[in-house]
Hints:
Elements: E1 19-20, H1 50-64, E2 68-77, E3 88-96, H2 103-106, H3 111-114, E4 115-123, E5 129-137, E6 139-146, E7 150-151, E8 161-164, E9 170-172, E10 188-191, E11 193-194, E12 202-209, E13 217-219, E14 234-237, E15 254-260, E16 265-269, E17 285-290, E18 299-308, E19 313-322, E20 328-336, H4 354-364
Parallel strand pairs: 2-10
Antiparallel strand pairs: 1-4, 2-5, 3-4, 3-6, 6-8, 7-11, 8-9, 12-20, 13-14, 14-15, 15-17, 16-18, 18-19, 19-20
Amino acid sequence: MPRSKVGSQPPVPLSPFIKTSNVPIVKPPSVALESTNNTNELVRPSLVDEATWEKYISYRKIVLSQNQPVEFYARVVDQDGQPVEGAKLKISLVRWNEAIFVATNYLHWDAGAAHQQKFFDLYSDANGWIQLTGETGSFLDMTGLSKDGYISGYPNGNFGGVHYEFRGVRTPTQNILMTNSWNPQKGYMLHLWKKGATERLVRWNKGFRITQDSTDQNISLLPAAENETGYPDLVLKTPKANPNIQEGDRAYDRWIIIEASPNAEIQETSMIYPYSAPQGNYGRDFKFLYQPDSRDGDGWTRRFYVKARNGKLFASLGVSFASTSGLNMQVDTIVNPNGSRNLEPDPDKLITDAAEIHAIDLATRPQ
């Protein structure tokens, strides 16, 4: 009986849903260090002496041992945790082409042709499961996730992969949760947002450079008109963690604080798609201790909801902090100026006219 939710059972094989590119499909080896069961193909040619042939065979085994068994499992769910059927996950698989190493080609093989990349379009089943098994290779890379009627925040390009190495070692490239991708009971979780009713929103982004003198900087949820000061819905503060540190001594610890104005509140969220603002549980500020030598010293990205101007505005903020060339912060903002918590973006309903945005800004400022 089909399941209605993503659960504890492993997925069934999805071979009918697999589509590949025009790259020739070669039957994978049954043993990791061999490429064929036909030993007659590996008979030493008479013009090659035995010592040279042994070197060829040894090198062949080393090269083909890069092709390790691939086992990949993923689950696709929507914003409510419900499985999404028919979502397309694009995957590329890097491997060595065994066909290059048969006796007729082997002594004159082309390294470029031997390095093969296969492409797959994998579709989720009724329970959201996707799997790829029965292949061999050295590196699997996810390059796209999509479905009509859904918003996908995943880029067209690398957003997570797995290295398949000797003795069953597997190493994720980015997210540590990718370790679930070789667990058929869990699977790596992928998220889509099911589109719903949308409203007119304002969307903008702005960069902030954190100054050495720790000057406070106002963040207005609605861009101000030219030559005007925006309303300070939030304030970015960056004081030194130790006020006794002298400028130029060394890279020093400092606080990164996003503080709400008296008419606003802020709440950090782990939602991948922050498109539905909560009604309550907001706070006064967000604090992060920047330590140059720490794991997060190079940068991070966090998401926030903001309730501002006494509830006249709701917003989602994507805040990216980087320290690669100075200290910088990029803020990507979606604002609903109608007092609604609906923040689902719709390109056809974005408010882009500067005069209209200015009028909204003035109308929603607290008296």
